[in-house]
Amino acid sequence: MQLVTTKPGIIVAEHDRELAENSRIEIQRRLPDFSDCFVELGSGSGMHLITLAQRNPQALCVGFEIRFKRAFKTGEKAELKVLNNVMVVRTDARQIKHLFSPGQVSGFFVNYPDPWDKRRWLKNRLLNPELLQTMRDLLKEKGFLRYKTDHQEYFASTCKLLSAEQWQTVKHTTDLLQSPYAENNIPTEFEMLFKSQQKPLCLLETVRT
Ligand SMILES: C[S@@+](CC[C@H](N)C(=O)[O-])C[C@H]1O[C@@H](n2cnc3c(N)ncnc32)[C@H](O)[C@@H]1O
Questions:
Q1: Which domains, from first to last, does the chain contain?
Q2: Are 7 and 14 in contact (CB under 8 A)?
Q3: Ligand 1: residue whose CA is nearest its atom 14
Q4: Confidence band, pLDDT 50/70/90 cuts, at residue 46
């Protein structure tokens, strides 16, 4: 099945290059209708993306998800809720640099990225210096990156990368659910699981200076 044809206007890409170019065109066509653009990397089955879109009708909310079934489920949820501000790009999140132009994104969200915690796997981590630089380039001035994880070491190493001058930390906690940020927190599918396992959850929000 070709995923893009099942949810026209919502799911806009498959892996191959031509379709990636089509999704750039589609995203760029939709953007002028919105005052903000929020981008979620590794959006999973869409629980967070959908709530984000419901709470922010002024924003085009674009999720990048590499797994077919999860991208499809997100599309189903957007259809069910009749949301016109959700798009899902079923491709590697590292493609963002080809789909957006500098200064177009108001906020990035990275929720519970795969930890890749063996030494030889570290290079696979989504939040690496190269992607962080790309995100910074695509953010508007004062645009933000909001990152959540249950993985303490990944959190500490990402915070270190983001302690550079070009970013300013505005929220930081290693126990999100007991923090003042719990009130407006949008949960994710993986977060519900980690919560049930009583794992402490970490949140960082940092702003492009
Ligand atoms: C641990 S899950 C978290 C999913 C969701 N954010 C949540 O919190 O419920 C990580 C997700 O990132 C996706 N993913 C991993 N690497 C990716 C990449 N390079 N590009 C896009 N999605 C990716 C996986 O398929 C998976 O759905």
A1: 3-208 (3.40.50.150)
A2: no
A3: 42
A4: very high
Distance CA 154, CA 204 (A): 12
Ligand 1 centroid – CA 20 distance (Å)? 19
Distances in whole angstroms, Cα of residue 157 to Cα of each of 40, 64, 125, 136, 177: 20, 23, 11, 18, 21
Q: Which two tokens stand for residue 102?
A: 């500098």
Q: The tokens of 28 are what?
A: 């760029």
Query: Is 114 one of the annotated active-site residues of the chain?
Result: yes
Percent pLDDT > 90 in the chain is 80
pLDDT band at 22 (very low <50, low <70, confident <90, very high): confident
Render pLDDT for 112-167 as a digit per residue (tens, 0 to 9).
Answer: 999 888 778 788 899 999 999 999 999 999 999 999 999 999 999 999 999 888 99
The CB of 79 under 6 Å from ligand 1? The reply is no
* Residue 57, token pair as written in the block: 């009708």
Given the CA of residue 190, which atom of ligand 1 is nearest to it?
Answer: 9
Please tell me which residue in 114, 137, 150, 175 is annotated as part of the active site: 114
